[in-house]
Each structure stands twice: as structure tokens, then as C-alpha cells.
Amino acid sequence: MAVAFTKEESAETAAETLLPDRTISPHPNLVTDAGLKALELQVQEARQAYEAASTIEDVNERRRQAANPLRDLRYFVERVRTAQLVPAPASTEIVAFGSTVTFSRDDGRVQTYRIVGEDEADPKTGSISYVSPVARILMGKAVGNVVAVGDQELEVMKIS
Questions:
Q1: Which end of the chain has fewer CB atoms within 10 angstroms, the N or the C?
Q2: Rounded distance, CA 61 to CA 89, Å?
């Protein structure tokens, strides 16, 4: 076989499979107990995926398969390292990190969200990040308080 048809290992080939790090938020990494456990689980899953990819014999395929788990592992290890565990709120009198708040909107919709850390926020399942505009405006408010978010008003109906 001609040398022109063989692929040599090179720094260039290796660099093709190194993914840039995931962006780390500039905000404090506040987490609930469940959020910290979820981050620790994601570290384990990324480590397992990386170890599985590391067993692939073909060096180029191994690099390709290991790129995402390695990037995720770096991200989640850093998120666990910087996590600041916030205890559950001691009171349901005011909205705080970890509170579940129910509010009504001008258009009659009633929504309920738990205010959590950035990595565990998932509005589709009822949680929003403490740095989101809605959470920031609701923090420190009590039942009956009305706040403006953009061109809408929200009324706090329940805190749990």
C-alpha cells in the first residue's frame, strides 16, 4: 500500500477530537441537595462513558467516542467542586432559593416553579434557575405581592 493512503497519528488528528470546554456560568454555583446529588451522578456517568470509550482499539474512533464524555467530565467535576449547598428554606413566608412558588399572570395563567441552581433547572418539569428573570424578581416576595416582569404582572399566590 502506498504511503499516501495511510493515516499517520499526529497532533493535528488528536486536536480534531478535543472539544472546547462547556461554558461555566459566572454566577455562584448554588445547589439544592438534590441538585448536588444529580451533579455527582453526572460525574459518575461521564466517567463511565469515558472509560468505555477508552477501551476502543482504533485510536481515532477512541478519540472521537471519548471527546464528549471527557468534556462533560471536566464540566461536571468543576461544577461539583464549586457547588455551594443551600439548605432548604426554613420558612414559607417569603420566596427563597429552594422554594416552590405559585403565581398568577395577568392573562389568568397560574404557574408553579421551584427555584433551584442553574444545572438542575428545567422549566418543563417545574423548576427554574435562581438567576432567571422570573426567579430573581420573585425572591424575597411574600404571598399577595405583585411584581412586574417585562410587560406582565405576577401575583405570588403560594409559597411552599
A1: N
A2: 48
